[in-house]
Amino acid sequence: MSNKSTWEVLSHININEKTEKKDKLTYLSWAWAWTEVQKHYPAATYEICRNEQGLPYIYDPLTGFMVFTKVTIDGIT
Hints:
The protein has helices at residues 6-11, 30-40, and strands at residues 19-22, 25-28, 45-48, 58-60, 64-66, 69-72. The chain has a two-stranded antiparallel sheet with strand order 1-2. A two-stranded antiparallel ribbon has the order 3-6. Strand 4 (58-60) and strand 5 (64-66) form a beta hairpin. It is α+β, with helices and mostly antiparallel strands.
C-alpha cells in the first residue's frame, strides 16, 4: 500500500493527451477519468447526483448539460 495521499496519486497522472475541447471549455471525459481512478483504487465508488426534479443532470445555457457525481475513495467522499 502506498503512503501517498489520494490527491498525490491522482494529481500526478498526466491528462494532457486525454482532454477534449468544446467551444471554450476544456474537459476530461468521465469514462477516461473513472478508468484512471479504478486503476489506482479499484474499490472506489460513485453516485450520480440528482437535481430537485429528480433528473441526473442540469442544463446551463452557457456550458450545456452537466452531470454531477459523488466519488468515494478509501471511505472519503
